[in-house]
Amino acid sequence: MTSEPTTEPAGPPRYNPAEIEPRWQARWEELRLHTADLYSDAKPKFYLLTMYPYPSGDLHIGHWSIIAPTDVAGRFKRMQGYNVFFPFGFDAFGLPAENAAIKGGIHPREWTDRNIDNMRRQVKLIGAALDWSKELITADPTYYRWNQWLFLRFMEKGLAYRQMAPVDWCPKDLVVLAREQVLGADRVCWRCGTQVVKRDLEQWFFRTTKYADELLNYDGLRYPEPIKVMQTNWIGRSEGAEIAFEVAPDDQQPGGEQIRVFTTRPDTLFGATFMVLAPEHPLVDALTHPENKAQVDAYRTEARRKSEIDRLSTDREKTGVAIGAHAINPISGEQIPIWIADYVLSTYGTGAIMAVPAHDERDFAFAQRFSLPIRVVVAPRDVVPDMMDTAYVAHTHDEVLLNSGDFTGLPAPEGARQITARLEEAGKGKSAVTYRLRDWLVSRQRGWGAPIPVVYCEADPSCGMVPVPDDQLPVLLPDDIVQWPAQGNPLETHPTWKHTTCPSCGGPGRRETDTMDTFVDSSWYWWRYLSPGKEDGPIDRALNDAWCPVEQYTGGAEHAVLHLMYARFFAKALNDLGLVHEREPWKRLFNQGQILGEDGERMSKSRGNVQDPDALVARYGADTVRLFLMFMKPWAADAPWNAKGIEGVNRFLRRLWTVATDPLGREHGDAEAGRLPAGQTAADAADDLLRTAHRTLKKITTDHADFGWNTMISALMELTNKLVRLRGSEVASLPAWDETVRLTLLMLAPMAPHISEELWARRVEALGEEWSSIHTQSWPVFDPALVATDEIELPIQVNGKLRDTISVPTATSAAEIEQLVLARDKVRAYLQDAEVARVVQVPGRLVNVVTKPK
RNA sequence: GGGCGAGUGGCGAAACAGGGAGACGCAAGGGCCUUAGAAGCCCUCGCUGCGAAAGCGGCGUGCCGGUUCGAAUCCGGCCUCGCCCACCA
Fold this sequence. Notes:
The protein is an alpha+beta fold. Helices cover about 35% and strands about 20% of the residues. The strands form ten sheets. Strands 10, 11, 12, 13, 14, 15 and 18 form a seven-stranded mixed beta sheet that branches. A hairpin with a 7-residue loop joins strand 21 and strand 22 (about 465). Helix 21 (about 710-725) runs antiparallel to helix 22. The protein is flat. About 40% of the residues are buried. It binds one RNA strand through helix 7, strand 11, strand 15, helix 10 and strand 29.
């Protein structure tokens, strides 16, 4: 059997990442190189945050593609002189742990802890400059205690409340879901994909709608445009008017009830020919005429069943029934019939609309279906729209009102204003704003989450619902559940846990058994990173003042209207509570793209297309895997995994290793090895090399600003290729060679921290200098004189087509260039049958000779 | 149905503000070195016409049109794919 020699064979050492990577990681830890001094003011501060993972068990390549490039950004900032805080933790509450517990008879805590241990090990393989001294785990009582404390503060401020409401229920996970967690037209659970059902349940909400307007303001935030668009659409602000229609008296009833509607088009009020209430509208019972009752009841039952089974596509035929009563148009006095229909939603606006079929597609379809009148009240000047097929909803900005009493002839926007004003005088309306955004439903009927700290007194009705006093926090989860129940909430079925005493009267009480949505945990974790052990409050305000808001946050775009919006809500709420100084959590957000499986599908265990970084690291080393992830695509782009290209970056590192450790060696098999480029002296070649190094440095420094990893690596490859070509030549003994190697290592250090550290150490040793880590060096500064060129090569076009190139000194004047260009043989060939019409010059870029026939 | 984004060689991609399309890498082919090589080094590599070759042309960034001296880039219309929303009054 053969074995690796224990000492290196003669000749240059080989690149062996398996040896150098663990060695340097241990050394960095020993030196506490990545532990930020949060109390130091010596350097400018930079809080760098990446989304903490859910400890599902395995770290896959997708996690690497978030953490590694973020680490590069942090390491670059450190070299630029910043005090960088880059912490990590785990989003440890959640359903997968409970599912494992149900299946495997293991407590969720045990399952979670085990997974965290494995994932922490895997994350450490990346060699990221993470500050592990501030690690936090949200399932730890030292964390969720403060969830509970914040919940109590929210209650005091009216930001948390309990209410009966129709809510979305996942029949598979047996929990309610926030509106944001129900996806798509099929209305499926965000986690398990099961179609949700509606249920009327008493649930806890956070009042996110309080900040709806402020959430629409992104001033000063560098967020990806799609995130802003998605959040804006989700919040869905609509401006318009709220208008009160009065129920008309008739032979069945005295009338007089107010039906409030919301409309974005008060200008169309004269076109309202009927009214539609949501089937669940509270006035339906009272207003329905006896002869309509059977039909109405049947429709309401059917509507309820439908909404529970299946939301049909938007183009299904409209349905509805008249209830018999009429309403009075508050501006024209006209009486119009009242209908119910399920296209009007009880949960949006006021749950009732004025129907203007001439100017709303849905109302139009409804009117057609039930032969209701369609009256045009808005049209472009001197045009009568054809109302045969479709409603007229366009805005050309020169529409005027028609058939609208005193308001006829007014431009539509002015009409809207005046009609609203008239209604307001009469006390029958006012301008109003409505949002699509609903309050965040935060209670979950699960046993692996932060218990909601409330007790229901069973002794004295006057106590009612009692918040758990601060000094009784945390409300701990039970640790003694042997078999996790497959059905129902473990806190509910636990024999003793929910039974307690009322904090108010001391009598028997029952604990709230709902726990908090895990998105509550993730809405404030970065503040806790600053002081994860703090015992007298959730957030250290002095550190918050010093370090927040987070300078750069990185993570996936799939959280656009979930985590990324909830966290913004928290910043505003915590600011109102005086706990933090800022109202936005992060100054800059970046969404990295996804790495898909080799089949182009999302990576998942069930598809069997998950890429395991451990095997790649074992084969190529962490530096190669890091580089490859950054080289294979722009950071923001999605791309399927294809490991083929990894050879390329690995080759690049091996070449760099060779030129750095053995500059004088020559390649066998290359007749040109060791020779200077044709026509160049050693001094020429050295000068060219150094200039290339400085141009590379300039490019890379610039590319860092927008995370252009792939082009940075390309530039370093080019520079290294230049070194390879000069290896073994005279240039390799000149100062320019050593300076180029030095700059290359420094530029590479953030991206491939281990190999650059190793080569740095070897270089320092060879020079007999005192060692200090490459990662504590300053980012080099390029020399403008070396970046500047004294000769430029100009492309020459004739009529926009490339025909020639010319090399001229930088200082050549436009007139001189024109003269030179027109004298070129290739240009003159085109001037045989044509003459010069003009010569376009873009200084430093190109020359275009435009001709015309003679 | 609406909104947003994207479409460039066999493949991943680059082209910063309208100025040399395809940098860098993968794959492929040829060569060198080698006992040998899966290592390393060198060369070729968008399609196509003429040519023995050096070379000289034509076409080419999803499609059709436009603006411009000049378009992957800007404008209009269309096609395909992806994501988000989906009766929101």
